[in-house]
Amino acid sequence: MGRATGEGFRGVCGLPRRARAFLLPDICDELATVLYDRPRQRTGEDLAWAFGVLAHETEHLVSSRSEAETECHGMQRVDELALSLGVSKAAARMLARSYWEHVYPKLLPKYRTRACREGGALDIAPASSVWP
Questions:
Q1: How many domains does the chain have?
Q2: What digits encode the pLDDT tens for the residues 83-95?
């Protein structure tokens, strides 16, 4: 996976009169394949990573939680975010599962917590059997 080096920001997201999040080129490139190249069923670890980063940074724009809490809440919104950008429901679920199974375990410890699990303290939909 292309993990950013800090060189050459290409994407910016933000809310009016609020903070902005800067996304590195590799993240923008992955998201652009969905938005502009139209491979709507595209899935994979790199794409899951890109949606996870976008979800994480979006959470930072609206909340001041710890990195681990922000990561957990963002991860649970990966499928919702992918759907909003035109990904099919099945592909969106696959992206969320891929993030949980392949990306989340590799994150630095400050981005993970044992409370981030189905039925855990950070489960945003505890009544649902869908995780993440």
A1: 1
A2: 988 888 998 999 9
